[in-house]
Records
---
Amino acid sequence: MEYLIGIQGPDFVLVAADNVAASSIIQMKHDYDKMFKLSEKILLLCVGEAGDTVQFAEYIQKNVQLYKMRNGYELSPAAAANFTRKNLADYLRSRTPYHVNLLLAGYDDTDGPGLYYMDYLSSLAKAPFAAHGYGAYLTLSILDRYYRPDLSRDEAVDLLKKCGEELNKRFILNLPSFTVRLIDKEGIHDLEKLTLGTK
Amino acid sequence: MALQDICNFQSVFEDSLTTEYPAVPHGKKIASNYVSGLPFSNNKSLFHFYIPVAEYLDESPIQFGQISTVQNCSADSSEDPFLTSSTLPTCLPFASSQSVPLPFPMAHGTTTLAFMFQGGVLAAADTRSSCSGLVACPASQKILPIHSHLVGLTSGTSADCALWKRILARELRLYQLRHGRRLSTSGAAKLLSHMLHPFKGTELCVAATLCGWDGGETGPGSRGETTKNQMTDLFYVCSDGTRLRGMLFSVGSGSPYAYSILDQGVHWGLTVDEAKSIAREAVYRATYRDAYSGNCVDMYHITSKGWTRRNREDLKEEYYREKERRKHEKTERRDVTFSD
C-alpha cells in the first residue's frame, strides 16, 4: 500500500515517499509525511504497521539527537543505519517486534552520499537505489534499466517521475502525490511534491 | 442414531417417571451436577442430559461467563454432545491474540465524525451501542468532554473508550496542576497514543478523535501545518498506534458513508449552521445504511469559548420527514407527467 523510493547520485541522495495514511479501505490523510529527520543530513523513511512506524522512527530520531548532545558531533549515516538495524534486530525476537520497512538516506562529509535499505527482519544493505512496498515490484526494473552512478539531479528527478508514472498507470491503488526530498552536502532540501493526475 | 446412543437419550425418557429430586446436589465436579435437581434426569445417568444447563457454575470463578475457543470445547466434553451444541454460539468472532477469552463477542459499530472550519471544530456522533447483533443501548454518549476546551469522540469498545477518556482527563488535569498550563491537543493526542502503546496487539480497541482549542496559555507548540491562524486542532488516535492530525476525520463502521457526504460539502468557509447541517446529514446517511449506527445524533461545537452541546436529536423523525418528502416529490412528478 505504501511506497518508498531512494536514488543515490554522485553527490546527493534523492528520496520520495507517498502521502497516504490509510486505515483499512479509507484514506484518512492525503498529505502525510513519512520521512523523519534524524539530523541535518540524514533522513529516515519509514513504512509498515500503523503505530510501529512512528514509535520506532521517533525512538531512533531521539537517540540520534541524544548522541549529538552527549558527544558534540552527529552520527554518520552509516553509523545511524547500523544503530537502527541493531535496534530492529534486538526487538525482532522479543514479544513486541517492530514491523517496519525503512530507507535511511544521508550525506557524510567524508564518505559522501549513502542510501541504506532495511526491512522488518533487520536486514541492512547499502544500495545505489532502493524501493519499498508493492510499488517496488513495478519500479525496480525501471531503476535497473535507467540508473547510472553519475546521474545529475535533474536526471534523478526524471527517473523518479518515470517511476511515479508507472505506478499511476499500473498500480491498483491510487497514490496521488509523493513528498520528494534531496540530501546533499548542504543539507536536506524539500523539492516540489510529485503529483500525478488521472491517466 | 449414534448421538442418541451415546447419551442414552431413550433411556432418559423411560426413567423420567421414576425420577426423584435429591435435595442436595452431588459434590462431584462434573457438568451434570446441577441437572440432578431438574426433571428428566436420574441418579443413574449422570452424564446424560439435554437441557442447556448452568455448566459455568462448576467452573472456577475466573472463567465465569467466558467463551473459550471452539477447539477447546470439543476436546473437553466429548461425552456431552448436546451440551456443546446448545450452549455455545456457533460463530465466534475469532480473535487473533486471545490470551484471555472475551466475556462476550464485542462489536465496534458507530459513526463519529469531526471537522475543522472557520467557526471552530464540529463533532458529531450517533448514539447506538451495539453488541453482537443487538442494540445494547440506544442512548449512549460517544462524545465525551475531557475539559472545557477539549472533546473526545469514541469509537471501538465502549468500555475501553470510557475508561481511557477518564484516564486521559486525569492525566491532563495532573499536567495542568504540575506545569501551570494546559496541554495542547497535540500533546494530549501524543499522551494518549503513548499510554495505549503497551496494549498494542491485545484486544483493546480505542479509536478516539480529539477535538480541541489550544489557548494562548498552552505555550509554543509544533504547529507545522497552517491552520489559518486558528488555535483549533483535530487528532485521530487509535489503539494500534496511529496518530494523525487533520482537518476532517470520521471513524467507525459507518465512516465510509459519512466520508462520502462530508467530502462533498465540507470546506473551510462554511458557516456554523451549514456545518451543523452537513454533519447531521452525514450521520443521518451513515445511520441509514449502517446497521450498527443509529438512534440519535449528538453534536458538539468547539470554539475559543469552549464546547457547546446541541440537544440530542432523534433521527427517526428525520427518516420519516425524508420519506414524506420523497412521497411528495413522487406525487408532484406524477402530476407533471399527467398534465403533459
---
Amino acid sequence: MSIWNYVVTAHKPTNVTHSCVGNFTSPHELNLIIAKCTRVEIHLLTAQGLQPLLDVPIYGRIATLELFRPPGESQDVLFISTERYKFCVLQWDAEATELVTRAMGDVSDRIGRPTDNGQIGIVDPDCRLIGLHLYDGLFKVIPIDGKGQLKEAFNIRLEELQVLDIKFLYGCSKPTIAVLYQDNKDARHVKTYEVQLKEKDFGEGPWLQNNLDNGAGLLIPVPLPLGGAIIIGEQTIVYYNGSAFKAIPIRPSITKAYGKVDADGSRYLLSDHSGMLHLLVITHDKERVLGLKVEPLGETSAASTLSYLDNGVVYVGSSYGDSQLIKLNSQPDPKGSYVEVLESFVNLGPIVDLCVVDLERQGQGQVVTCSGAFKDGSLRIVRNGIGINEQASAELQDDELEETEIAGFDSDAQTLFCHNAVHDQLVQITASALKLVDASSRRLLNEWRAPQGVSINVATANASQVLLATGGGNLVYIEIGRESLKELKHIQLEYEISCLDINPVGDDPAHSHLAAVGMWTDISVRIFSLPNLEMITKEHLGGEIIPRSVLFCAFEGVPYLLCALGDGHLFNFIVDISSGQLSDRKKISLGTQPITLRTFRSKNATHVFAASDRPTVIYSSNRKLLYSNVNLKEVNHMCPFNSASFPDSLAIGKEGQLTIGTIDDIQKLHIRTVPLGEHPRRICHQEISRTFAICSAKYSYNLTSGEDTETHFVRLIDDQTFEIVGSHQLDTYENGCSIITCSFTDDSNIYYCVGTAYALPEENEPSKGRILVFAVEDGKLQLVAEKETKGAVYNLNSFNGKLLAGINQKIQLYKWTLRDDGTRELQSECGHHGHILALYVQSRGDFIVVGDLMKSISLLIYKPEEGAIEERARDYNANWMTAVEILDDDIYLGAENSFNLFTVRKNSDAATDEERGRLEVVGEYHLGEFVNRFRHGSLVMCLPDSEASQIPTVIFGTVNGVIGVIASLPHEQFVFLQKLQHNLVKVIKGVGGLSHEQWRSFSNERKTVDAKNFLDGDLIESFLDLNRNRMEEIASSMEVSVEELCKRVEEMTRLH
Amino acid sequence: MILLPCGQTITCMIKRGKVVTAMGSLLGDWPSYNPQNFSQLRPSDPSHPLQLSPVTYCATHNRTIPPPDQVISTEVTNILLRQFYRRGEAKASTKRSAVDSPSSEHINKQRRGACDHANMCATDSGGNLASGSLN
C-alpha cells in the first residue's frame, strides 16, 4: 500500500443519536428529523408510513439537534451544533428544494474544559435564546430577537461544575433553566436560574430541589398549564414545580431517552437501558398535579431517542440495535405487550470487531461484524452486490426443468434470437430465416427467408417488430402481424453491423419508433427511425473496440441508450424519445470481456443485466445510474424467466450450464442479521473448520437478587448456517478480550486462541488473565491448553509459529512446547515492556506494530537469534489509539480517539539514530468516526485484470455502524483526485456553511492541522450526483472531458 | 378495564382516594395531527430490517452562507471584565445622576419601587413561579 490514501464510506452511519418532529418542509407537513452522527435524515409522515426525503451530510459530528419556531413564522427551523463547536440554523426552502443557512457560527472558547457528560444545546420554548453548555462552568447564550434573528453570543458563569442535564422551563416570564448537577460529595440536585439577557447574567430562579435520587440523570420540562419539571432517577421519578412535589418509586433502571406524547405534557414515553418502554403519566386536574404513574408497555430496541409521531406511532432511535417504528396499542398482545413493531431499520453500530471472509469462495470478500450491544447484539453479514439464489441448474436432472421441442422452430440451425411476439406467437431467427410460430400449437405460421447466399448476422425483435442485419451492411425491418411477417424497409449501410436493438421505451410497450445500430469499422452507434430506417443521429465511440451490445431502456421514466463494447466498457446516453437525439454521454468500465445487455423487471422497476466476465446489474436510484456486482462468475447470457415453478426468476447461461435463479433486492450492500441476544465483542474465522469463533457477553436480570449479571462465553458458530454449535463459559468476572485462529511450529493442528481478563470490581486495571487454546473437534470447542497471564490479554497474533500477546503494558511472546506426557503448553519466550497499555498489536515478519492506549504507535522488532524484542522506532505524539494496521513494510495506519486517522512511516534510511528511531507522520485526516477495527480486504470481487482490484484496500468498522474503505492509490491517481477534490469543494458547499477543509483537518485536544495525504472519497464520489453543467464546470477547470472524469470517479465507486 | 400488573396500581390509587385511571384510558386517545398518517402502513417482516436510502443532499447553491449579520461569534470580553465594566457603569450612572440633580435620590427610590412592582406583576402572571421558592 502507499502513503496516498483514499477514504470512502461503504456503509453510512446508522446509529441514531437524536430525533425530533415538526413542520420542517412545509407548514402543513409533519417531518421526522433524525441525526446519525455526521448525517441528518429528513422524513415525511404519510399514510403509507415514513417517507424518506433527504440524507444530508454534515461537516461535523452532530452534538445537538433541535427544531424551533421563530416568532411569527409558520414553519420550524433546525438548530444543529457539532462536537467541534460549530453551529447552524437551517431552513427548508420548498420552492427551490434547498436547505438554506439562516445563521451559523463558532461557539468555541479559547479556554475551557470540555464537559464530561456531553454537550447540551437547548432552545427556549418562547424562542428568546439558544442555550449551550459546552465547557464546565460556562453557559453560553445566543440571544434571538423578536424577528428570529440571532445576536452575538456571550458566556455566563455557571457555578455547577458537574452538570448532568439542563432544560428550559415552560411559561416563565424570563427565560429560565433548570440545571441537574452533582456536587463534590456526589449528591445530585436541581437548581433553576433566570437568564437575564440584558445584564448577561443569571438571576435567582423560582425553585430548587436538593438531594435527589443518586442516579438522577434526566430532566423533563412540563409545558403549561402544569409547568415545573420531572426528574428521572434510577429508583424514583419526581415531579416538582416549586410548590407541588410528587414522587414515585420505580424498578431500578437507567432511563436513556424520553419522548413527549401529549402537547400538554400529561404523558411521556420512557425507554430504559434494557429497551423496556414505559408510559409516564401525570395525573392532574388541569391546574394541579395529583400524582405520577408509570406503566410498562413492552420491549423495543434500547432507545437513544424517542419521538412520538402521530396516531399512536412512535419512532425509536437506537444506538445499540435496529431503530424501529412502533405502534402503541390499547390492548395487549398475547405476550402482554402494548408495543407493535411496524418497521425496523438496519443499524450496524456499534461495530466493535469485524472480519473479512470469502464464505462462498467466489473471490469476493464479505464483512462479518460484531454489531449492537447488550440484548440487541448480533452478527451482520455485509456483502456488496446482488445475489442470485440458484433455484435449479440444467446440469442436474431436475423434475421441474426439462427440454421441450417446438416443432415450428428450426432445431438444426444456431438461433441468433428468439422472442415472444404479439397474438401468442414466437419468433426464431437463425442465420437463414425468421420463423413465426404459434405458441400454443407450436406449429410454423409464417417464414421470412434471407436471400440466397446471404446470411443473417445480427437480429433483434420486440413483440411486434423485427430488425435484422445481413452481411454487407444490409438492414431489414419487418413487422409481425397475426400469422404474418411484412418486410417494410431495407437499406444498405456503408459498414458491417455489429449489434441492434429496438426495445420499446416510449408509450407503447409493444412497438418502438427508434432503432439503435452498432457499427464495425467507424465504431459508432446510430439511431434510426422506424419504419423508414432514416438515420437520426450518429455517435462515434472512439477507439478500436467494436460495440457488441446496444440497448434502449427506461430507468425511473428516463430513457437511456446503453452501448457495451467488446472490452468490457459501457457507454450510456440519455435519449430524447421524440427526436431520437442522444445526450449526456458517459463511459465506465464493467469488466474486460464483451458485454451482453438485457433488461429484466424486479419489484416493478426495470433493471439491466450486463452479462460478461464480471456480471453487473445496472439500475437507477434517485435518477442516478448505479452498477452492482452480481455474485456469479462469467455469464454469457441472461433472460427473465417467469413460470409457475420459478416465478420472477432469471435464466442465466454460463459456459456449458443453464441456471435458474431469483434475484436479491436491488441495492448495493446486502446485510443479513443474525440476532444473538447477547453482546458479541470479538470475532474470527477459521477456514479449515468452516466456523467462526466469537467472544460474547450475556446480560441478564436476576429476579431474586434484583441485580444485572453478566456471563462471558466463547462461542463456536457454523459459517454457513450461523448457528451456535459450541460454547465455552468463562469464569466469573472473566471477559474475552481477543481471539485469533493460528497454528504453531511443529504442530499441524489449527487452533483458536482466546485472550481473557479478570475484570474484578475492586481493580482499576486487570492483574490477571488467561490465554486459552481451543481445538475444534467434531464441531465442538475442546480446551487444549491454558496459560495464566499477569494482566488482560488485549490482543493475540500468530507470530512465526509462535503466539504474540499484548498483556497490559507488556508485549509477550509464547512458544508452543511439547511436554513429556505428549500434551502441549504455552511457554513464555521473551517480552517487551514500556507501554501504558499495549492495546492493539499487528505483526508482519519479525516486525511488531503496537498501538498504545495513549502513546501512539511504536515499532518493535523480534530478534530470533537473541530471543529478544526491541523497540526500533516510535511516534512521539500522544495519540490515544483505537486501532492500528500495517499498510506495508514501512507504513502504518492508526486511528485515535478524537476520531482522526493518521499514517506513520519508518525511516530506515535516515542518517542518524535519532531519526531512525522516529516514526514520521506522513498522513493526517479527520474521519469523524471512532474506528474499532481495521482489516485488510475488499468488499468487491477481486478480478485479476481489472484496474480497481489492483488497488489494495483496508476495511474499517466504527461505533456509528460505518463500514469504510481505505484505498492506497498510485501517486498519479492521488494527485488527479486531489485536484478534483480541490475543485469540488468550490462547487459542493458544506450544509450550514460548515467548511470542508476545517472538518477534515486532523484535530484533537493537542493540535489541529490540515489534512494531508488522505482524500475524502465521499466528497469525490458526490461528483456523480452533480448536474451536467456543474460537471462540465469542474471538467473544464480540470482540463479533462466530463466522460473521462465520470469514468475515473465511477472506478473509485467500484472499490466498495 | 384491563387486568395487568396495573391492577395493583389501580387499587392503591383508589386507596389514596385520587383520580382513578385504568390502563385502557391511559393508553388511548393518542394525539393526532393528521388522522391519515400511518393509516395505510402494513407492518413489515421484523426479521428483515429495512435499509432506507434517501437521496443524498448535495448543496451547490450559494445560500449555504448565511446573511453577514447572522455569522455569530462569542463576545470577546471575558466574564470578569464584563462584571467590572458593568459595576463601573452602574457606579458612574449613580454618580452622574447624583451630580446632575440633588433631588435624584428621591426619584431613584420611587423608580426602584416602580420597578419592583413591575417585576412582581410579571412573575405573578408567569404562573406563581416566585411563590414557594426556597421554602
---
Amino acid sequence: MKLRLFKQERCCPRMGPGCLSAGLPVVCLFVVMCQTTIMAVEYDGGVVIGADSRTTTGAYIANRVTDKLTRIHNKIYCCRSGSAADTQAIAEIVAYQLGFHSIELDEPPLVETAANLFRASCYRYREELTAGILVAGWDKRKGGQVYSVPIGGMLVRQPVSVGGSGSTYIYGFMDANYKPGMNKEQCMELTAAALSLAMERDGSSGGVVRLASISEEGVERRVILGNQLPKFSTH
Amino acid sequence: MKPNAALEGLFNGGNTPKAMKTGTTIAGVVFKDGVVLGADTRATSGEVVADKMCAKIHYISPNIYCCGAGTAADTEKTTDLLSSNLAIYSLNSGRNPRVVMAVNILQDMLYRYHGQIGANLILGGVDCTGNHLYTVGPYGSVNKVPYLSMGSGDLAALGILEDGFKPDLELEPAKELVRAAIKAGIMNDLGSGNNIDICVITKQRVDYIRPYQESQYKDNRKIKYKYRPGMTPFLTEKVVPLKLEVVQESVQKMETA
C-alpha cells in the first residue's frame, strides 16, 4: 500500500518539525484523514452502526464534529475510515450506482449489492485509494447485515465488525463482550462503550459518538456528546 | 507530487521561481440571517510579500462567495471556473445556484486532480434551503460546519471562533467575531497580514466590505509613482511611413437569418 499519505510535499505553517529551522511561512499539504474508530453490529431485525467524529490533517483536527455515517440508500449506510477525500468520493459513486440499480429493479437494493459495489471500486483502485469501509443495512432478504471492506478491497460479512485506527484498542473488548442474540438497546450500549474506550486511547479518534440503528421501520440516529459518554476507570 | 517537475528541468538545477501562495487567514461564520466571510489581504512569494491588497474573497454567484487559501493561481482559476459553470447553469435552468452544487462541482474537480491543485476553499452562501458554510480541501474532502477557518493562520483564528461562536448570532456580533478571528491570524502568523476584508451574505443582499479594517502599519508614500502622459521629454523625432499595398480584397456575406 502506497504511503503517499504521510509525505510532506511542501513545508508546513503549523510549525512541523522541519519548519522551525526555516522559519518561513509556506503552505503545507497534509492529507485529510478520518483515522477514526467505526463499528457495526448485527441484531435480529437490523443493525447498529457507530463512529467517532474526528477528521485530522496531520496533527490538527480539521473537523471535530464529522459525520462518518454516510447514507448510501434509504436503509443502507456506510461507515468511512481512511482518507476523507477518497471515502467521500467512493461513497458518492456507490450511492449513485446503487440508486440507479434500485430504480432499474424497482425494488429496494440489497445490502450485499452495496457491499459488492464498494468492493469493486476499492479493489480495482487499491493502489490509489486508502479507504476502510463498513457497509451495514437492512433488506428484506437477509435482514440486518454488516459487511467489511477494508483497505485492499476484501469483502467479508461479519456479525460484528470494527474498523479504523482506534479499532485495534477494542478487539479484546469486542471478543469479551459481544454475544449473539443481543437486542437493539444492548447493541447500542455495546457500540457506545466500545467507541468511548477507543476514543480514550486513540489520538486520531475523538469528539462525539454518532450512532444509528437501521431496521425495517427505518433509520434512527443518535448523538452522544462528550460529557455524556460512558465513563470507565481513569487510572 | 511535483506539478512543476517539467519546469524544474528548464532551470538546470538552479532555483525555480516560487509559486505565489496566499499564506493566509480566512474564516467564515454562519449567523442568524446569513453567512459572514473574512480574509486577510497578504500574498507571499517565498519570504517576500508579493501583494499587500490581494483579494481572497472570490465571487462565485450573486448569493455565493468563496475564500481561498493555498496557491494563489489555483484558488483564482478554480473559483473562476466554478463561477462560470454556475452562471451557465443559472441561465440554462432559470434558477439561482445552491451552495451544495458549488461544493459538489469543486469536490469533483479537486478529487480528479488528486491534490495537484493546491486550493483550500471556504464556500459560504445563502440559498433557498438556508445559510450554508462548507470547506473543500485540496484532495477533494468536504466538511459542512457552522464556523471555520483555513490557511496558515487558521489555528490562531479558530481559537477566537471556538471561544466566541454561538448559534444564531446577530449581524454585528458575527462581523466582530470574524474580524477578531482574522486579526488573531494576522497578529500571530507571518503569512497573514495587512488589511481585513469582510463579506456579509444575506438573503436580501451582499455586503463586500473591502477593506473592513485597515492595517495600522500602513506606509505613507511621499511621492506618487504614476507618471502623467507627456512627462517624458523627447530629444528627436523620426517618422517612417509604412506603405501598404492592397494585394487582394474579398467580401464575405454573413448569414444572420
---
Amino acid sequence: MDRFVWTSGLLEINETLVIQQRGVRIYDGEEKIKFDAGTLLLSTHRLIWRDQKNHECCMAIPLSQIVFIEEQSAGIGKSAKIVVHLHPAPPNKELGPFQSCKNSYIKLSFKEHGQIEFYRRLSEEMTQRRWENMPVSQSFQTNRGPQPGRIRAVGIVGIERKLEEKRKETDKNISEAFEDLSKLMVKAKEMVELSKSIANKIKDKQGDITEDETIRFKSYLLSMGIANPVTRETYGSGTQYHMQLAKQLAGILQAPLEERGGIMSLTEVYCLVNRARGMELLSPEDLVNACKMLEALKLPLRLRVFDSGVMVIELQSHKEEEMVASALETVSEKGSLTSEEFAKLVGMSVLLAKERLLLAEKMGHLCRDDSVEGLRFYPNLFMTQS
Amino acid sequence: MATSFEWPWQYRFPPFFTLQPNVDTRQKQLAAWCSLVLSFCRLHKQSSMTVMEAQESPLFNNVKLQRKLPVESIQIVLEELRKKGNLEWLDKNKSSFLIMWRRPEEWGKLIYQWVSRSGQNNSVFTLYELTNGEDTEDEEFHGLDEATLLRALQALQQEHKAEIITISDGRGVKFF
C-alpha cells in the first residue's frame, strides 16, 4: 500500500483514460482497509482510485510499479477481485496514504462487478506499456525503463515473498482451526481415564454397588462409546439387557424368518432389526450377545455358526440337515451347480445357498469341482458309485 | 497303446481332479487315483517317471475334460503310493520315482514260486535269465524291469530265500 501516491486525479497530457469502474474496494494484502468504496480508473500510465464519498481522497499507482496481476473469481458472499503484485516503492516516492507496509500486493474487489473487463484492459495496458512511449511529468516516471536483470530478480523475489506469506497465512488459519480440536481431545482423554478408573473401582468393590446401578453406569459408558470388558467378565455371557433383547428379537424375527424359509444370515437380521427400531439402534456386539442367549432362554429361534464363520439365525423348527437332502436332489437333477446357480433356483441368498451346499459336502452328499471355471458341486459319486 | 487303455469312470468326473476336503470322500478319491496310476503304468510298461512328466501326461491331465490334477495333489497321490509300497523315490529331491504296479514282495513271491515249482532251488540265475530267458516266457515277471526285479530279489533276500551275487558279467541270484 505504500506504493500509492496522493493525486488530484486529473489526467496528464499524453495520459488517456482506458476504463473506469465504480464500487471498488482496496485490500492491503489480505486485509481490508478504510478505502472501501471508490471508483477505480485505469489510464495508460496509472491506476487511480478515488473515494466515492470524498472526492478529495484520491490516490494512484504508476502502472510501471506493477509486476503482474491475477484474477480471483467470485465466491459465495465474495466479489471477484484482481490481485496486483507490486515492485517495492522507490526511495524517492512522493507522499501517499501509507509510508510503509509489509505486503507487496494489493487486491481490488469489484463489489459492483466489472472485474472481467477491467482485468482485460489492465492486462492490455501492461502488455503495451504505453507509458514508456508517452512520457509525462516526472512525478510518476519512477520505474520507467528498469534494467532487465534487476527487475527480474526483484520480480521473482517479490512473487516468492508473496507465496511465502500466503503459505504462512494458510498454516496459521489451519493451526487456529485445530487448536479447539486438540483441546477437546485432551478433555476426552481425561474423561476416558476417569471412567476407566471408576469402572475398575466397581470391579474391585463388587458388593458395595447394586447390580442395577452398575448396569446403568455401564450403559452410560456405552452410550459414550466406551466399551467395558468388565461386563462380560462379571456377568458371564449375558446381562439382563441382553436377555431382554433376546426375547424382543424372538418376537420381531418370527414372521420374517418364516417368510425366508426359516433361516436368515445375522447381517440380514441386523439390518431388519435396526430398520424396525429406527432410533436407539443396536450395535453388532449387542445383537450377537443377545442371539447367543436365544437357545439358553428356550426361545423359538437359535444362533448357528457355520464352519466358515458365517452366523445365521434359524427357527428351532428349521432343520438345515433336512434341507440338505432336498439340495442334493436339486443338484442331482441339474448334474452340477454353483452356489449362485443353486441360490437362484431355490430363491435364497447366495451366502446361505453356499452354506447349505458346504454342509451337504460336509455330510458327504456332495463333492466339489474347483477349477478356473469356478466352484461347482456334484453329487458325491465317489461314495455312491463303485 | 493309449487307445486300448480303458479309463475308469472317475477320469471323466470333474471333481476327480479337485482334492476333496471331506475326509471320507478323499479316501475314496485317492484310492481311485492310486489304482489308475498303477494300471496306467502297467499298460504303458512304464516303470519310472519324473514328476514333470507326470504333470503333463494324460494320466493327470485330461485335456478333453479340461481338468488337470494340480501338482500338490499329484504329490499327495504319489505319497499314498509310496506308503502302500508301490512307489520309490529315485532322488532326494523327489523329482523322479520308480513305480511298481506290483509291490516288490509280491514279485518276489511269484518268482520264488516259479523257482520252487520248477525244482530249481539252489540254482543260480543271471538277472537277465530270469526276466528274459525262454523258461520264463509264460511267467508274469517275464519282461520285468531290472530296478523292480532287484527290489523283488532284495525282498526275498530279507526272507533268506535268495541271495544276490556278483558274477562274471553282472549280477545274479541264488535261490535257497
